[in-house]
Amino acid sequence: MRSVLNQQSADITSFVKRPVSDVEIVLFDGFSLPEIAAIIEIFQRANALTGAQSGNGSHFNVSLLSATGGTIVSSSSVAVGTEKTTLHQATSSTILLFIAGGTGAKQAASNGPLCKWLRQRHPMSTVVCPVSEGELILAANGLSGRYDVALMNPGIAGDMPWQDHSRTAASAIRTALQIPKEELDAEMAKHFARALTPSTRDLPDAALARRLSTPRMSDKIRVSARWLEENADRPITIELAAEAAAMSERNFLRRFKAEIGMTPSDYLQRIRLELSCRMLIESQLPVDKIARRCGIGSGGQLAKLLKKHLSITPTDYRFSKTAPDKTSFLSYDFEHRESLQACA
């Protein structure tokens, strides 16, 4: 037993002594929040796991960056504090670069200072991972995603080009999950996987990313699903959703159900419920305001949906979750968010 414990201690010490990695996440006005939340949680859980078992500091230094610095507003009107790209200094030689997706990506792709910084940062980065529409920003600068196998795994030669061209959030999250797993021994990797399970299991929408990554989904339906996500906070009709997919209403309804496995209305409801769940955890906003910001309408309607899908009230759901620590990406100034009034 003692030898086993000693071996586990050695494995943990070996992991933590590896060089610290910088996780740099590029944001812009109109970025999509849920995917970025998931990616940051992955690295926070990895830090919590190794720190708790070794007593050492964080292995992944997570930074939120933007071309202007300061407050950036997501597509769901959540304000996020960022550091200016040109002022940011990496703390290690291993840079893991993620580029957010969202409706603001097209405009960000023409942002001169951001594009110049990305062109300089790209060759310095071990991993370059676009999230959904983030690929548009890379493409506009003649760049692509990459995963440097040799740097992530010393002793293994090679540089792997970006393999997943589906441009889904699921592919970016898979990449984020893979990075800590490659640096953990087998036993700690199991602990890491279990550490992620509770928060993903408790969200009503945990399978949506997998649905969106299915190879049988057509481009039009994938685009329409993304459009529903980005516009979930405002009134949406089937006519508008079909128009976004450039399809007739009848054909859109039929193909959406066949390819995703649920109707557009059910899909939209789940997206709104997931957004509400995240805001219940990550903010101190009143339930009624969260419901309105997420397109549900009222706190009473949100309570009914939570009761139906999770058998819990909004208040109980909020208090059942562990509050994020100071390094959480949602340790933002929520009083400032209130002044935005974008969805009020």
From TrEMBL:
GO terms for molecular function: DNA-binding transcription factor activity; sequence-specific DNA binding. Residues 222-320 form the HTH araC/xylS-type domain. Pfam families: HTH_18. The keyword Heme does not apply. Keywords: DNA-binding, Transcription, Transcription regulation. InterPro entries: AraC_XylS_family_regulators, Class_I_gatase-like, Homeodomain-like_sf, HTH_AraC. Transmembrane segments: none annotated. This is AraC family transcriptional regulator. It comes from Caballeronia udeis.
